[in-house]
Amino acid sequence: MADRMSWRPILFSCPNTGDRVQGLLPADATELESDDLHPISCAACEGIHFFNPRTGAIIGSKGS
Ligand SMILES: [Zn+2]
């Protein structure tokens, strides 16, 4: 595949540790107007958080 995805770095606070973490989000995701959640791997707690591109909210974990 020649396609290259573009990524946009975002800063967020890890809900588990409170640390500021830089994550990568697909560039497309910031243009969505839905409430789709995008998984972001967290360097602080090594878990996965979910980012809502419409509200900018970070959700600690889905469904727990
Ligand atoms: Zn985290």
Give a structural overview:
This protein has strands spanning 7-13, 20-26, 38-41, 48-52, 57-59. The chain has one domain (7-59). It is globular. Helices cover 0% and strands 41% of the residues. The strands form 2 sheets. Strands 3-4-5 form a 3-stranded antiparallel β-sheet, with no helix packed on it. By secondary structure, the protein is mainly β. The structure holds zinc ion. The site of zinc ion has 8 residues, from loops.
Quick summary of this structure?
The chain has 64 residues and is an all-beta fold. The chain is built from no helices and five strands.
Compile the SSE list and pairings.
Blueprint: E1 7-13, E2 20-26, E3 38-41, E4 48-52, E5 57-59
Antiparallel strand pairs: 1-2, 3-4, 4-5
Bound molecules: zinc ion.
Zinc ion (ZN) binds at residues 14, 16-17, 42, 44-45, 47, 49.
Keywords for this entry:
single chain, mainly beta, 3-stranded antiparallel sheet, 0% helix, globular, binds zinc ion
